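lol ok so funny story. i was supposed to be doing the assay writeup but got distracted and ended up predicting the structure for this chain instead. priorities right. anyway since i did it might as well share w the group, maybe its usefull for someone
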Amino acid sequence: MSGRQHKETETARRVRARGLAAGRSLASVAEEIFETCSPLFGTTRIKSHRLSNGIALADVIEQVRALFERDGKAIPGIGETLLSAYESGLKRPGPEYLHYLCCVYRVEPVALGYDGPCICGHGHRMPGVVRGGDLQDGRSDTSPVSRELLVLSDGGDPSTGGGEEDENVLRRTLLKLLAGTSVSLDGQVLGAVENIRRRMDDTMVSATVSPAMLDQWEESTVGFGRQYMNTPPLRLLCDVLLEFAAVRKAMERRQPVDLQERLCRMAAQLSGLCGMIMIDLGDHRLARSFFRTGRTAADETGDRALRAWVVAREALVPLYYGDPREALTLAKKSRDMAGQTPCAAKTMAPVVEARALAMLAGSNGQKKDVVDQAKRALSRARTAFSQMVPSEQEDTAFGYTERQLYFYQGDVLVRLGETLEADVVLEQALGQYEGEPLDQTLIRLDLAQCRLIEGEPEEAVQLATRALEMIEKIHRTELVIARVNELIGGITGKYGEIKGLDRLREVALDRAQLDLGDLVGGL
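and the output, tada:
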């Protein structure tokens, strides 16, 4: 312990002793410690509560772990480094950790120095409460702090700087989702999303942050990548953007070059992940904006593989929502950026090329030439995949997996009309997927397209309807529904109205009333 820390602890110990002798509450003692120590040592409110309890970092961590265990949750990876970062103000606790810290100290987020309500939506003042509040007997916390939380949860606008209100919008969205309330992707949420992204553009500078803290953020970034394929998009977007905002704050101050590069890498990855989520949600404008931010951040790292990955992911925007010719151009640009570096983009870029070429094949007079080009691109992708390191072959977001390669190869073959080969490849892909509803649904819709091409429209309708019914409404994203509408258009254009089409339309429209409270079941 440094001399400064020792003086801080000794001062807090004296304040605590006097307060307890006078019969004051621990919360009141914590407030006095903050008022006494903050001007002298920069003590934060959250740290003052630990000092008022007279316990060490390790004691708080064990209590948090015990509460997770009591709630039947996996033991978290919180450690002294992360808790110390909270206490020093370098990082803000995520919604879940903040809830459990409030439970440990039996206070509300405001008392710990954080605006906005807790995700549990209740008080933490009663001894032994883990989930907050006593709902059984109908009592509620009518303290000033509780009343302030209720105002915030109803859309209050606390005076905050540095974009904190945008983060509060996302925290309130999370609160509503976890409470089972229906939430839509409205202008306020989209505005917060765009503001956070723009601030990252504005603050591509440097900051001071510990290497240990960067380790924690990098682990979180990798974790978000693992969640990408099986977490509802809007739920994941809130989590990713809150981490994105924390990284941006760290970049506002000067830092050593090596730490700056790591922060820029995380900014590029989180921006790219946000762009991918916005594609799923159907907002191609915001998707492009996030990829542009990701490019800016990736350029700061000088990492060819990372820069190529952002551009390859960006190519999916025009592939799904624009001109396949633009997708082809971006894919070739990504391939050139990657050069001879074995990486995910070197596999992904030729796959995007092949898909764009397959989409152009139907309108190109020289169809055979386009088909040959697409198949050569797939061959390059398979070769590049074999050169990737195993860790990248298992990463669905920042790498490229074998099942993704099979899926997109099958998608290309469907669009080229090679249905026999496509059936085999798509079935192989489907057999490798587990718990990833988006790609599984798209594969089943490709199999339905095969049936349509082979002249079996009724079977195509049945396959597509089953594909939608197998997933929750929250996973029926704009991307999925666009593919369904493409199938319906192909059927009606060739066969008119057939049996089962009304049911398929009904299931597709059902997602229009998105009940985002369904997310709670997956948490």
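The chain has a mean pLDDT of 82. The CA atoms of residues 171 and 310 lie 27 Å apart.
back to the writeup now i swear
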